[in-house]
Amino acid sequence: MRSVPATSTFKKLQAFPVAEVWQNTQTGEHSLHAAQSFTPNQVICSFAAATTLSHPTYLTVQTALDTHITLRPFYLQYVNHSCAPNVFFDTARREFIALSAIRPGDELVFFYPSTEWDMQQPFNCHCAARNCLKVIKGAAHLSPAQWKKYRLSNFILEQLKLHVSKIS
Ligand SMILES: [Zn+2]
């Protein structure tokens, strides 16, 4: 899990039955937190495409090579990245799923490369997970060991089948 500095304080901005939008009062960053407990593989909620775009933005989730969706319910946009994720976007079933046991108040974090193939805007990760990848660039840039370690969307698995011999 992401380590939050002990001095961080949060303001709850909005509460929904399954999750709450919090804001870090020091950094201004938003995050999504569980409003109830979830068990591994439990469906937290279904989601739909609010809009469908041909190019990614920092708000989109990739569902095909040239298809990137913004999410409904909108608060799913506040799910941040971690290299030790506790949630997963199943883009085939359109279900937002718990990967591990989650308690109320836990931040919900997903692994961006689980849906993003080759990110146009890589970023440096500071998630503080033991196996933090440091630079997040998309699933195309992971090692075979990393592909095996994470749950990946059907789209990413299809891309791996097409490209893995060229990459490795
Ligand atoms: Zn990380």
The number of helical segments is: 2
Number of domains: 1
| Mean pLDDT score | 93
Looking at the structure, the CATH topology is Beta-clip-like
Instruction: Give the terminus-to-terminus CA distance.
Output: 29 Å
CATH classification class: Mainly Beta
Task: Specify the overall morphology.
Answer: globular
Q: Report the CATH architecture.
A: Beta Complex
The hetero compounds bound to this protein are:
zinc ion
Brief overview:
12% of the residues lie in helices and 32% in strands.
Task: Give a structural overview.
- The chain has about 170 residues and is mostly beta strands.
- The protein has a single domain (about 10-165), classed as Beta-clip-like.
- It contains 2 helices and 13 strands, in the order βββββββββββββαα.
- The strands form 5 sheets. The chain has a 3-stranded antiparallel β-sheet, with no helix packed on it. A 3-stranded antiparallel β-sheet has the order 4-10-9, with no helix packed on it.
- A hairpin with a 3-residue loop joins strand 1 (about 10-15) and strand 2.
- The two termini are about 30 Å apart.
- The relative contact order is 0.17.
- The structure holds zinc ion.
- Zinc ion binds near residues 83, 125, 129, 132 and 133.
List keywords for this structure.
three-stranded antiparallel β-sheet; 2 helices; Beta-clip-like; 168 residues; binds zinc ion; 12% helix; mainly beta
